[in-house]
Amino acid sequence: MGRALPSSMRPRALVKAIFTITFAVLWTQASTAGALPYSDFFTPADPQHLSLTLFASAIGNESKYAATHEGFQLEQTLNPYIGVVGRVSGYQIYQGAGWDNPLNLHPGTRPRNFGVFMGGIYLLPFQGTSLTVLGGRDVGDSNGARIEGDFSSWISLHSRHPINLSFIGDHFYNNGQSSGMIDVRVVMSSSRRLTWLLGAGGQLWGGGPEPHIMKEFGPDLGLFFRQWQTSLDLQAGYGNNHGYGTIAVSHHFGWDE
Amino acid sequence: MQKPTRLIAIVALTFTLTYRCATAFAQSTVGEVTSITGIAKLVRGGSQLDLAPSMTVEVRDRLSTAADAKLTVTFRDGSKLILSESSSYTIDQYEIATTARRQAEIELWAGHLRAIVNVGAGGVPDFEVHTPNAISAVRGTEFETAYIEGQPCPEDRSCLRYTTVGVFHGVVAVANIANPAQAVLVNEGYETTVACEAPATSPAPLGMEEMGAPGYH
User: Fold this and answer.
1) From CA A68, how far away is CA B176, in angstroms rounded?
2) How sure is the predictor about B98, in pLDDT bands with cuts at 50, 70 and 90?
3) How many domains is chain B built from?
4) pLDDT score, position A106
5) Contact assignment for B207 to A80 by CB distance below 8 Å
6) Judged by CB atoms within 8 Å, which residues 59-118 of A form the interface with B?
7) Mean pLDDT, range B178-192, rounded to an integer
8) Rounded-to-integer distance, Cα B74 and Cα B56, Å
9) B217 to chain A, minimum CA–CA distance in Å?
10) Structural domain of residue B35, as residue ranges?
């Protein structure tokens, strides 16, 4: 099992990790960009853009944690660098506990269902880099507040094999658990229809009902069907909960206004 | 004996005139509209016409599409140009001898244009798409050019006019029109951007713009 984490340090450690990774990548990007061209910061984005993402995912592991998650996310530009985002999603936890579990108790004999309503802002400080900060509340079998930070950045964008670094951090106030999902992927090939990505990633979680830092890591495969604006991500690996597998699919719509 | 001579003269004159007209028609008519969705217009010799399926197109025609429209023109050598909504282009040059293309030059004024170039038996085609700030010279068969004006270029937000070229099959040489010698070769599955007076960027895989959006993980 993992190392114990002092309860007062759990959210702080997560926030530190997010900021450290964010600033490290931003610093790298800024040094290559040469300057920060934010002269149009106070002008509205032209054209304004509204996008809708439908998503669904499932996770299962050998220690009998099984959950599904689905919903939609809306993003609206405000200026070229900032937009607002809203997300509505539903969770089903069938059994056990895992990295994205906000429940105090294990589901027992019946699945636990709850909805999550979140809102926040996203920042686009550089081409290919985004940072989204969300806050919201669970409704249903979980009813606490939660916060989330999503960071994604493309490195060596103008190369044959750009690299994507992404990090998602969550804190669930319902049970006091914090979690982080990290992923590093490389574009292997691209065509008019399909982009292939290969990489590795995993999850870390701890706090609340879980007194130790838990972790699981493994290789992942990403497919982006460009014509359909649909992405499919698969990951399998091993960790404290033994073997696990995840599948996620999302579909994007966009409208210039 | 006067009647046969006059008859021969009339036949000869008719043949000559018909041949010249046919040759002129063959030279100026380079293709036809094979698919149209929504409203598309053609400007020819100062007059504007509504485009319809099977209408012929000629050199120096300017074709444009309205919002939510799409237009496909198939040229006599089998090549196709697919114009997306709110876009326009001019056929500056399209030399065809029988069914083999000798040289083609298309000027994209606004929007997105997808070119499917038929290489055929004529070897490497001399097919170029120009925008106000870039040149794409085909060494392959299928690519898409977009010219965007009035919006910040993702590569350089201070630049408000840029061209992107994505290659689906083959190779395309892309350069800034201000410096055609400094061309970048874009392979299949990659795209490049020409911002204002800057040279074409090093190619990036297709789809990076979408995958860099906040909703993508």
Assistant:
1) 50
2) low
3) 1
4) 65
5) no
6) 73, 75, 80, 83, 85
7) 92
8) 10
9) 7
10) 2-211
